[in-house]
Design a protein that fits this description.
By secondary structure, the protein is an alpha/beta fold. It is 26% helix and 16% strand. A hairpin with a 2-residue loop joins strand 3 and strand 4.
Length: 204
């Protein structure tokens, strides 16, 4: 941290800012989602996620307890890209969270995905920074992932029209996923109007 001032004064450096990690998006209701999404009807019609690769991107160390649920609630991951440190990915499940620390949020998201598409393959990522997030998306594109589920929210990062001037913006990660043929599913609505009226100040 003490070096950031000197870094900001180097030729060619436009901006230096701290890394603000994303926040888990929790809703007020705990639900498996099968009934809400009418997934049972799809299952009865023979659609259970066969051949579909689903990537779950969650908060840093967000997959606590995942290993305990393998074989019951979730399958073994088909691929892992977790970050025990910024910029240093690992393909070991232990890097996604230990059973002692971290969050169970990503594990819960993965459980919900498997409830709705029980025959899908799971790919897990827990990036620490915006740049890690883009790397995780690029990795999922390379693995042939069809759907990315990200149940997180990030700080406001642009003029509000879906674009950003920053090369490492979470919005750019979405663009890269879509350009790679991936359907991006993001949590929305947990904060209702507070996303606009509780954070931003508007002026005429």
């Amino acid at each position: 941290m003490s070096l950031l001032g000197a870094v900001s004064e180097q030729p060619g450096v436009i901006r230096v800012r701290e890394i603000v990690p994303p926040e888990d998006s929790y809703g007020p209701i705990t639900s498996q989602g099968v009934q809400a999404h009418a997934a049972t009807a799809w299952h009865q019609a023979g659609f259970s996620g066969q051949g579909i690769k689903v990537g779950v991107i969650d908060s840093y160390f967000g997959f606590r307890g995942f290993s305990d649920l393998i074989g019951s609630e979730v399958p073994p991951p088909a691929g892992i890209l977790c970050y025990p440190e910024i910029g240093r990915p690992s393909d070991h499940l232990a890097a996604c969270a230990s059973d002692e620390d971290g969050s169970v949020h990503g594990t819960a998201v993965a459980e919900a995905v498997m409830d709705i598409a029980p025959e899908a393959s799971l790919y897990l990522a827990s990036p620490l920074s915006h740049a890690d997030n883009i790397e995780a998306v690029d990795w999922m594109v390379s693995q042939g992932v069809s759907v990315i589920v990200r149940s997180e929210s990030s700080g406001f990062d642009g003029p509000g029209n879906g674009t950003s001037p920053f090369s490492d913006s979470p919005l750019r990660a979405v663009d890269r996923a879509v350009d790679g043929g991936i359907i991006w599913v993001n949590s929305a609505g947990n904060y209702a109007q507070s996303a606009w009226y509780g954070v931003l100040m508007f002026y005429d």
